[in-house]
């Protein structure tokens, strides 16, 4: 019997933990032991986003402490009696920290009511007073090969297909969301920074690009470095749960998707090595097909016949060049 390495790529965990925190001190509305649904309100606070530093020319027409509204004129530069230039408020807020010497000031955003939603169905395991809750839930846990950035959580959106992201445009529709795609290129990443994307989940990503740029926006690659696809089973699952709340933990790297249904493909396998048999889902490590995924369709002496999903071809591979992801 041929044996291959087990790839612990995903699993369904009945005791997964998701922390949900308020952006500022406020009020937690639930207690330990309570059962919550995905859209249950678990906390609230008054929250003001970060202030913005603004440079000005000429003379300020607003005073420190004054409230201003978006597109309201804040400063004017004159040549003689004529106005030659002016600056407007990018958003509503309060003028603060005026520095006439260096010609700068800040606009503090107005505080707004913030409601914290559970995001995951489950049981409140513990509460940090006025700050956060820990929810015990059932979830699909996906383990990547590379991660960079801070832990983030948010709504999932899927773009492109599992192979690549050619022609994908990142815009305001993706602001504040986590984007799943086949491959992340520098153009997508720069647009994501511009529009405030929270994070990326992808199949492959360029190594040099990761070292030089990735980190501002959290990213997890589940296949490897290079123009590699995402596992089609995983990609299609993401498409099926689009708009669901998910968590990225790049330091592990791990993706958590709350999931109450039992899914066969996500059960995983215990141990380090396993016997190879027909029907298993495998990832290919052979250099010519690295990162691709397939199904074992036959075994011949010292070779494994694998039908490659991305190509529809059947390859003969050594057991050392595949990793078993899931049993049939």
Descriptive terms for the model:
elongated, single chain, SH3 type barrels, Glucose Oxidase, domain 1, 11-stranded mixed β-sheet, 328 residues, mainly beta
Describe this structure in words.
This is KOW domain-containing protein. There is one protein chain. The protein is mainly beta and 328 residues long. Among the domains are: 145-252, Glucose Oxidase, domain 1 (3-Layer(bba) Sandwich); 276-326, SH3 type barrels. The protein has three helices and 28 strands. It has helices at residues 186-195, 207-212, 232-240; strands at 3-6, 10-21, 27-28, 35-36, 41-47, 52-55, 59-60, 67-68, 73-79, 82-88, 93-99, 104-109, 112-117, 122-128, 132-143, 146-148, 152-158, 177-184, 199-205, 218-225, 245-249, 254-258, 273-275, 281-284, 293-300, 303-308, 314-317, 322-326. The strands form five sheets. Strands 2, 4, 14, 15, 16, 17, 18, 19, 20, 21 and 22 form an eleven-stranded mixed β-sheet that branches. The longest helix is centred in the middle third of the chain and has 10 residues, at 186-195. The chain is elongated, with a radius of gyration of 25 Å. The mean pLDDT is 91.
